[in-house]
Design brief:
Blueprint lengths: L31 H9 L14 H20 L6 H19 L4 H25 L3 H28 L3 E3 L2 E4 L9 H19 L5 H20 L3 H18 L1 H21 L4 H11 L8 H19 L10 H8 L7 E6 L2 E7 L6 H34 L5 H17 L10 H17 L24
Helix pairs in contact: 1-2, 1-5, 2-4, 3-4, 3-13, 4-15, 5-6, 5-7, 6-7, 6-8, 6-14, 8-9, 8-14, 11-12, 11-13, 13-14, 13-15, 14-15
């Protein structure tokens, strides 16, 4: 009996290389839609640019809807009682002012705009930020947008393609155009605040050095914006941030900033004569004011007269333009002149007092002002308390949160809501609200790789 030859050994294929597991959807930060809202402001504006809603405002409405869907799916309490009370304050005054508007359309339009900027979008941002890594991501997005707008503004100044200033097309306005000369100044100022907070934090040295370099570089386009209100608000806010970070560090950084300003303005002659004249005009607002300052004084007086006639509830939302001529003095001009490269000369009507506090006081009365100002002051108090309680690991987030709100409250003395960049006000309030009211992240040691702590049921109180 013959045996069959043995079968050849079977070739076993090598094991397949296991693919790295995909990160679960819950690990993808929900703050990216907010980043998209900020980034969308870098696109050139199309259309009239009369201060209405823009693409970023439309996307912010989608962000609010996205946040609402997440809350419904999670089935958890979104805010603590303190946060709910803080954001419920403005709703009371707004509802009363909307009921007293001259027409239902004006009341509903004004109510929707105020709720978007001061309630809905800030709450959505506060709930979508899941940790300090998300907070820093938004801060760097502010810096990146400011760098882009600043680069465009410097190019406009060098090539003479900006907005008109004293007969020359040299005013840096970025992609916002001559119809919104404050847009670029607002974006660059907020970028300086975020970069300063990141530089004063306790992160890696390379990151802090990059943030400091960005803050110094953004001073040039801020100067070329020729916006006195933005200069004052930014300087005051940076001083507050430096003092909160420590007196010794404040002295060092101030010396560096002064040296950089001397080099830019004196060494390279960056618009030194025009800048000096613009700075001198800050101290001449009472002795020899220009026409823009005269118009502002006249509108401030008109807003005060409206409030004295309707001290509790004001004249109603969107009511300032309708009552302006009946209360303004003869010193008020018909409007401001706007002109830039590629845009013809046009007369832009003055439809607001360019002072947020007086605008609220005239349209919403003392009730609306106390509600809105109470909300802002409560946010500032909570943010400062959280900053003093936080360790070195979260100092940069606290300095940014407090700085953004301080800048906004200071800028409201010279400006009000209006224009595409207004949506940044809502994002700033949301970041401050997250830091002061929602952040439940415990202090972590340096180099902690976990950016997102587990979300607890009903987290909201510290």
């Amino acid at each position: 009996m013959t045996l069959a030859p043995p079968l050849p050994p079977r070739r076993v294929p090598p094991p397949r290389r296991a693919l790295p597991p995909r990160p679960p959807l819950s690990r993808v930060s929900p703050v990216w839609p907010v980043v998209a809202v900020v980034a969308l402001l870098g696109l050139p504006l199309t259309g009239g640019g009369e201060g209405g809603a823009g693409p970023a405002d439309a996307l912010s409405a989608l962000v609010v809807g996205f946040c609402a869907i997440r809350l419904l799916r999670a089935r958890r309490r979104p805010l603590s009682r303190a946060a709910a009370v803080v954001f419920a304050l403005p709703v009371v005054g707004l509802a009363v002012a909307a009921a007293g508007a001259s027409s239902p359309d004006a009341g509903l339009t004004g109510l929707g705009r105020y709720l978007q900027i001061f309630v809905l979008v800030p709450v959505a941002v506060a709930l979508l930020v899941r940790g300090r890594a998300d907070f820093r991501l938004l801060a760097w997005t502010f810096v990146a947008l400011a760098g882009w707008e600043g680069a465009v503004g410097v190019h406009q100044y060098v090539t003479g393609t900006g907005a008109s200033y004293q007969g020359q097309l040299i005013r840096a306005v970025g992609t916002f155009g001559a119809q919104d000369v404050m847009g670029m100044a607002t974006v660059v100022s907020l970028g300086v605040i975020c970069a300063t907070g990141l530089a004063l934090g306790a992160g890696p040295l390379r990151r802090r050095a990059l943030a400091a370099a960005c803050a110094l570089a953004l001073l040039l386009p801020l100067a070329l914006s020729f916006s006195r209100g933005a200069w004052i608000a930014t300087a005051l806010t940076c001083v507050v941030q430096l003092l909160l970070a420590g007196v010794r560090r404040a002295l060092k950084v101030t010396a560096v900033a002064v040296a950089a300003g001397v080099v830019l303005a004196g060494g390279f002659g960056v618009g030194s004569a025009l800048l000096q004249e613009r700075m001198d005009s800050i101290t001449q607002v009472t002795a020899a004011p220009d026409q823009s300052v005269t118009d502002r004084y006249a509108m401030w007086a008109a807003a005060g007269a409206m409030w004295r006639e309707h001290p509790v509830t004001g004249v109603g939302l969107k009511g300032f333009p309708e009552h302006r001529d009946a209360h303004a003095s003869l010193a008020l001009s018909a409007g401001s002149d706007t002109e830039s490269a590629g845009e013809a000369f046009r007369r832009q009507p003055l439809l607001s007092p360019h002072n947020m506090y007086l605008l609220v006081l005239s349209e919403q009365g003392l009730l609306g002002l106390l509600a809105l100002a109470g909300c802002w002051l409560a946010l500032l108090a909570c943010a400062l308390r959280a900053l003093f309680r936080a360790g070195p690991h979260g100092r940069d987030c606290g300095l940014i949160a407090c700085g953004l709100l301080v800048w906004q409250l200071t800028d409201f003395v010279y400006a009000d809501i209006g224009g595409p960049a207004t949506v940044l006000t809502a994002v700033c309030l949301g970041l401050t609200a997250w830091w002061g009211l929602v952040d439940a992240e415990p202090p972590a040691p340096e180099g902690d790789p976990a950016p997102y702590p587990p979300v607890r049921e009903g987290a909201g109180a510290r």
